[in-house]
Amino acid sequence: MLNNNLILSLGGVFLIAVTVSAQSSTDFSFPADSDIRQIILDRIESRKQSMGIVVGLVKAGERRIVANGHLGSDDLRHVNVDTVFEIGSITKVFTGFLLADMMQRSEVKLDDPIAKYLPEEVVVPKRNGKEITLVELATHTSGLPRMPDNFLPADPANPYPDYSVKQLYQFLSNYQLSRDIGTEWEYSNLGYGLLGHGLERRNGTDYETLIQDRILEPLGMRNTAIILSPKMKARLAIGHNLALEAVTDRDSKALAGAGALRSTASDLLTFLEMSLGIKESPLASVFAATLEVRRPIGGNNEMGLGWLVMKDGEDEIIWHTGLTAGYSSFIGFLMKKKVGVVVLSNTSASVEDIGKHLLNPKIPLSPPPKLNIAVTIDTNLYDAYVGRYRYKPNYILSVTREGDRLFVQANAYEKVEIFPKGEREFFSKAVDTQIIFNLNDKGRAVSFTHYQNGGGAELHRIGE
User: Fold this and answer.
1) Domain at 379-461: CATH code
2) What are the 10-residue block averages of pLDDT along the chain, 464 residues in total?
3) Where would you find the membrane-spanning parts of this chain (predicted)?
């Protein structure tokens, strides 16, 4: 399956179609710490895919942490249970949880149009007389694209702070949906950012305050936030791209509900203990509501309110990932067996396979990536590759040249430099992506084949 994170989604969801039989609840046990540590060391030392990784495991009567590595190349403190990481799109789990909480308090209804919670002058796109509702935003079935097309950051290294609510409203008022609402699943950071914004407007406060008041404080999660305290900043792991180069820490405003939170393994294990019912909580019924509403994704996958659900024998893996320019994260659990896993890394190589493997060892770890070495070629060849290429009707990738450097930009995401390993083959140091340009008899690219995280697709040039 081609993942929907093409080139620079940075949203952190890779759907893996796996059919396996899970262990029974009576014989489930996590691997030994030494085995988990070996997985971590392989990622850090052999594959060079992280600077530091923290794995958290929880089940009834057991809460374990296995960690190795450092906060950064220039910060040799060891990562641990209290190290702070960006958790990217795991934020969506909290946004879905907030929606369920507000629904139970009768503050909102799932079928409320999002327009109800926006200024009257904002024109939210409709199609065939149907309006986009809160539940469609929460289940990625709104028909909205992954990102708004007016997302043009001044600083590609930290793209979100300068995207304003005014720009969000401008996009909504000018966008036309390309398919019927509620008919197709497409992962949308825009949709979740809009959902979080609508919920904060409903309560007349900001998104972070709502999350703190409704979720974090009741659960005692004191090290999860958007704006970091001085103590949290001191424990923040430095993010790195695939080349293990440090990247800028990110901020988010208008789209905070899609991926702005930072957290620790300790806090996320606390959240899992509530979700699994290991610890009593007044929020247990709210959690249950996040899984009562589901929409099909394809194969064995479903979408709840914030959670992804994958059938796993007689059980289900309920999970989400986060992937940003410098961090990767996973949270997941088996409800019937009441076991959960958290994996946090300060590099953008995905750790989803580690999380799922620990929940079910029959789900394999990903193979080591191929070694990419940049070579020197005639950069005049780049002129034949520059252009716009289509993946989906509203998903365009642009190839641009700046001097002797070649870049790819997916929709409104920041540009990513790609490096030659042959005259037609390129790779990125920032994300796991490979590109092979396909040429006509005049030597001009008519398409390129894109490979990422095990999936591939051909994108065709769409004009000058």
Assistant:
1) 2.40.128
2) 38 45 61 98 95 97 96 95 97 98 98 98 96 98 91 69 90 94 94 98 97 97 97 97 84 88 98 95 96 92 96 91 94 96 96 97 89 92 95 83 92 81 90 89 94 80 80
3) none
Instruction: List the beta bridge partners of residue 308.
Output: 303, 319
In whole angstroms, give the CA distance from residue 119 to residue 169.
9
In angstroms, the Cα distances linking 335 to 274, 276, 320, 360, 390 are 11, 6, 14, 13, 40
The pTM (predicted TM-score) of the whole model is: 0.87
Residue 358 CA to residue 40 CA, distance in Å, equals: 12
Q: Rg of the chain over CA atoms, in angstroms?
A: 22
Between CA 176 and CA 170 the distance in angstroms is 12
In 73-218, beta strands by DSSP E = 75-78, 85-86
Residue type, 186: E
Amino acid at 190: L
DSSP 46: I
Tokens for 346, please give them. Answer: 């300060």
Angstrom CA distances, 345 to 8, 39, 291, 349, stand at: 18, 13, 27, 8
Pairing of strands 262-263, 295-298: unpaired
Q: Starting at the earlier edge strand, list the strands of the sheet with 315-323.
A: 75-78, 62-72, 52-59, 339-345, 328-334, 315-323, 308-312, 301-303, 295-298
CB contact set of 32 (below 8 Å; sequence gap of 6+): none
- For residue 394 the two structure tokens come to 């509203």
- Residue 11's Cβ-side half-sphere holds a number of Cα atoms within 13 Å equal to 30
Query: Which among 332, 330, 328, 329 is positioned nearest to 340, based on CA atoms?
Result: 332
Homologous superfamily of domain range 33-359: DD-peptidase/beta-lactamase superfamily (3.40.710.10)
Residue whose entry in the numeric block shows the structure tokens 């620790």:
264
* CA–CA separation, 72 and 246 (whole Å): 8
Neighbour tally for 138: CB within 10 Å: 26
> Looking up tokens 């490096």, which residue turns up?
419
Contact 305, 192 (CB under 8 A): no
Contact 90, 321 (CB under 8 A): yes
347 burial type by CB count under 10 A (0-12 exposed, 13-18 middle, 19+ buried): buried
What are the residue ranges spanned by the domains of the chain? 33-359, 379-461
Half-sphere exposure (Cβ direction) of 82: Cα atoms closer than 13 Å? 8
Asked if residue 53 lies in contact with residue 80, where contact means CB atoms within 8 angstroms, the answer is no
Hey, is 28 helix, strand or coil? coil
The per-residue pLDDT for 154 is 67
